[in-house]
Amino acid sequence: MMVDAEFMRRIARAAAAETLPRFRRQGAVANKLAGGFDPVTEADQEAERAIRALINAEFPDHGILGEEHGSENTSNSHVWVIDPIDGTRAFISGLPVWGTLVGLTVDGDAVAGLMSQPFTGELFYADGDGSHYEGPGGPRTLSVRKTTSLADATMFTTTPALFKGEMRKRYDDLESKVQLARYGTDCYAFAMVAAGQVDIVVDPGLKPYDIVALIPIIEQAGGIVTTFDGGPAENGGDVIAAATPELHRAAMAALAG
């Protein structure tokens, strides 16, 4: 399904109007997790509200699943999945590697999506007819890098600390095989796979709204996104994104032990 690029831009602008004025300001941060730290800000909540209003006005018969304001009509064939600020920890730390994620699933398959980073003025989106970039340097079509060997690969994960027990050993084994490993950057790392800058991202414990928007951006740039066992990633879970089938197989094998 094609999604109008201008609608993607409208979503990005509406979210930015709520997030950017609050970025690098000392706004209130609430904690959603009693036994740890899962921050949510006013910017998260207001950006999602703005995105939902646009979708409801444009596509009143579509469902919505959002991180901050729950679900509506998610039994419908078309469902929009929203993470208003993916990387809230980066946001509250003043680092411009967070992004607004909005994806569209049709009968459970992610077919279109956007990642917007308004501070850097970048928009990554897939509209069903390819994966695209707009921002500094001018618009271009996105394409993954053709890296096939782990020894030549750049890999990202949010933090190795998310891998527990035996899985941490397997992650460390995978990291030892790649050329360069870097941490952090949440959705930005996945966007960089589509842009041909990063070769692999492995992240355990994702929610649907963390990944749905990014799946079509990577796939329509030529890459692969699955769970660690090779299944579809639309429902979240332990997710691997890779630029080529060869890298995907090698990373899956390392993580399987």
Automatic annotation (TrEMBL):
Binding site for Mg(2+): E67, D83, I85, D86, D210
Pathway(s) this gene product operates in, as recorded in its UniProt entry: Amino-acid biosynthesis; L-histidine biosynthesis; L-histidine from 5-phospho-alpha-D-ribose 1-diphosphate: step 8/9
InterPro entries from the UniProt entry: His_9_proposed (IPR011809), Inositol_monoP_metal-BS (IPR020583), Inositol_monophosphatase-like (IPR000760)
Catalytic activity: L-histidinol phosphate + H2O = L-histidinol + phosphate
Keywords recorded for this protein, A-Z: Amino-acid biosynthesis, Histidine biosynthesis, Hydrolase, Magnesium, Metal-binding
EC number: 3.1.3.15
Origin superkingdom: Bacteria
A Gene Ontology BP annotation from the UniProt entry: signal transduction
PROSITE patterns given in the database record: IMP_1
SUPFAM superfamilies (alphabetical): Carbohydrate phosphatase
One Gene Ontology molecular-function label: metal ion binding
Cofactor names: Mg(2+)
EC main group: hydrolase
The keyword Transmembrane helix is assigned to this record: no
PANTHER family: INOSITOL MONOPHOSPHATASE, INOSITOL-1-MONOPHOSPHATASE-RELATED
Family: Belongs to the inositol monophosphatase superfamily.
Record-given protein name: Histidinol-phosphatase
Organism, as annotated: Aminobacter aganoensis
